[in-house]
Amino acid sequence: MDTPRSPARRQGRPPTLPDARARILDEAAALFARQGYENSSVGDLAAALGVSKAALYHYFPTKQDIFDSIIVDVLQGLRDEVAAELAGAAGAHERLRRFMLAHARYFERRWAHFVTMLIGFSGMRTAYRADAARLRDDYEGLLREIVAQGIHEQSFRQVDVATAGRAVLSMLNWMARWYRPGAGDSAEAVAQRYFDLIVRGLASP
Amino acid sequence: MDTPRSPARRQGRPPTLPDARARILDEAAALFARQGYENSSVGDLAAALGVSKAALYHYFPTKQDIFDSIIVDVLQGLRDEVAAELAGAAGAHERLRRFMLAHARYFERRWAHFVTMLIGFSGMRTAYRADAARLRDDYEGLLREIVAQGIHEQSFRQVDVATAGRAVLSMLNWMARWYRPGAGDSAEAVAQRYFDLIVRGLASP
What residues pair up with B156 in beta bridges, in sequence order? Predict the structure, then answer.
């Protein structure tokens, strides 16, 4: 709020609430993660932001739009950040490690958004659902491509690519259920241990 | 309802609704899994069961009691069934396989109960929460004990026991998010592939 903004960034936004969209989504995610979607009202959110409900409705016509936007935004951000992290790596082993660690770092930074995505049972509206499904598919596709690359390079065994992708994402995604930022290990440290485990396996050589 | 019951089974139960408790929980789990906890009313549940709301309140004073009971029951059933399955096995490798496959079979059979447990954001009441936490800890303890046994037997590497336990449960628990019974592979077949992957790892020998 008190960071100076260039005129370009202000353009088209009401002068009272710069960066409003991102701030609303951050505060809403924190609220939903804390007390659930159904138990959170637009009034609660407006109070938390210190603005009127009318100001919120200017950006998001309904609470459902806020919820849907959180999920689409977090999926988009996750994919972009992980893809950027992969850019400099060649082998499947290193690419898988970067994928898992970048995912964990992003998850920890946007923990409330991930928790909102996990608890979001009430369901997204159809318009957003297609976007979210496309982003999720892209992301899973990126991971499967790494596993397939490893098999092709013969650094990985001939595993079932879909199963391996699911296994990796299950470990990372389930963290939204038990991990709390700031309590114990970083999410990245957890992901590094998961990486070692899934690559080397439990069995003694 | 129309299955003949022995007099012993009827004892202490109102004559109008034999096996009422289990039937209520099954129907409630199906309802919660389908439309969410917050969106399901006791009236919806009574209608689905073909009984009055008063009849339901005889067994469960509140909707929250129904929800809490589903979670405690499914955790209790899971632990008992998996523990029974482990009884005949000796080595850690076979015990881990049985743990994962028995978990998956139980999950598939009681899918709606697991989904209810996963989506249950609104939170349990304190009295039940302690029971649920104890059951969950027991269950995780059982799995960790298998991993520790494998390390002791030297059939498993010197992995971090807590990480390995978390990884296995993450793969199995995340199935509540994507797996649908009757569409494709059995949950047991999925668990068998996860078992192969986590034991042998991705890397080529």
Answer: A203
